Amino acid sequence: MKTDKLVKKVALLGIMGSLALVLGFLESIFIPDIPFLPVGAKPGLSNVVTMYTVSVTGLGGGIYITLIKAAFALITRGATASAMSLCGGLLSTVTVWLLMKKKDRLFSFVGIGISGALMHNLGQLTVACLISGTAALFGYGKYLIIFALVTGAVTGGMLTFVMPGIDRITKNKQYDKYDKEMKE
Amino acid sequence: MNTDKKLLRTLTKGDILLAAVLILVSLVWFASSFASDEESLTLKIYLDGTESVSVSLASLSEEKHYTVGGCIICADSEGVCFEKSDCPDGLCIKRGRMTRAGDAMACVPERVVVRLYGSDDFDTLAY
What we know:
The structure holds 2 protein chains of 2 kinds.
Chain A (H helix, E strand, L loop, with lengths): L1 H29 L15 H12 L1 H43 L7 H24 L8 H31 L1 H11 L1
Chain B lengths: L12 H22 L7 E6 L2 E7 L7 E5 L2 E5 L4 E6 L5 H4 L9 E4 L4 E6 L3 H5 L2
């Protein structure tokens, strides 16, 4: 029974990891550079996946997804992009985990999404400042706050709608039925 | 950790408060950075955090190109932009021109930062 759970977790993380990569890749292709918005800023659709994974498996799964994303960024976009992805991702994942863990609900998924996006941007901005050796880039923050508000609300809202559906798949009645039959 | 997911599906007061605070903070931030409409701008270019170019934009009568690190930066009396860069993504070039005091942009992979300072240094120190 214990191995069954492990197998399920491995499969879930595999699916979620690849889903995060595909979403991240697709948005970098299809979403053009919008004037007035921070250059290189992306909606972060793969944060939907990270948030879902954190809510199902806890912090470990979320960090796993973050590491996969950073490794992918290293291969496709170079070391700088990877460091920014890693630092933003870790900060955001931990924030999302802490907010979800909280017993009395401070935020809904929308609020958690916004907080996660905000922390993601903060992490990336910090890395950008560290690498370039100046704090001047924090002036970018005013754009990133608004951008995080919008994208975080979108990703949080998406999770709200998608969650019941994925839950149904991962709880997998078919699997449980099979499991029962095997035992009989 | 399957906590009550239903509760997470409705907006809370916390959400609205968070959104309001963020809008307020960025509005104040925008207002304070656009309030300064300086006339004399000083361009400074940093490589690895150390200053390598410092020039007053008003003194430029024509376009001038500076090569710093792996980047070529184009400046004239009105503003400044990245023209070429060895970096993989070219985001610094896509950022376009900047013309305001307190503005900063960077090519992070090449560790080149470009800043415009106004005549009032305290304003830019706020960053």
